[in-house]
Amino acid sequence: MANEEEKGNESNKKEQNVAGAASAEGGKPQDQQAAAGSEQEKQEKKQQESELEKKEKEIAELKDRFLRLAAEFDNYKKKVASDIQSAKDIGKAELIAKLLPAIDAFEIAIYSVNGAEQQERDKGFELVFSELYDALKAEGLREIEAKGKYDPYKHEVVLTRPSDKEEGSVIEVVRKGYMFNGILLRPASVIVSNGKKE
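and the corresponding structure tokens:
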């Protein structure tokens, strides 16, 4: 009897152990799934933080590049403005240098007026005009031709009057006009014929 009771107890213990093991094995996959889910969330969060950090770094780099380009462009504009002004100053200086002989000749003509004969005085002023005009002509100054038909782009009519010439023809130049390298500086002031005299 005693042996049978011991065998029964041992059998019950084995069953309890088996049941406990089965219960433990049944709970293990759930714990693993929960742990795996938590780990995945951590990795996703870490990846998002890494991507955010990367984007912030890219934005900072782009901002720095923009500021550098803006500063370079501002310096470029200042340099171009300075170069243009320098070119203008050089051009003016060269022109003035070429006019200096005309100024010298004019000064000589003024001081030689006293006691000089009319012919010599006129010759002095002609020399001044010639020096000045030649210097300007060398730089590209051209006198506008005021012959033939009236040209509204180059002539300015100050008066019309009957003449033997065809209507619309320039018959007299009141003030000469000039162009500089194709640029109109001043139109020629002219008198134009309004038809033949009756």
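(Above: one complete record from the training split.) The chain has two domains: 44-139, 143-198.
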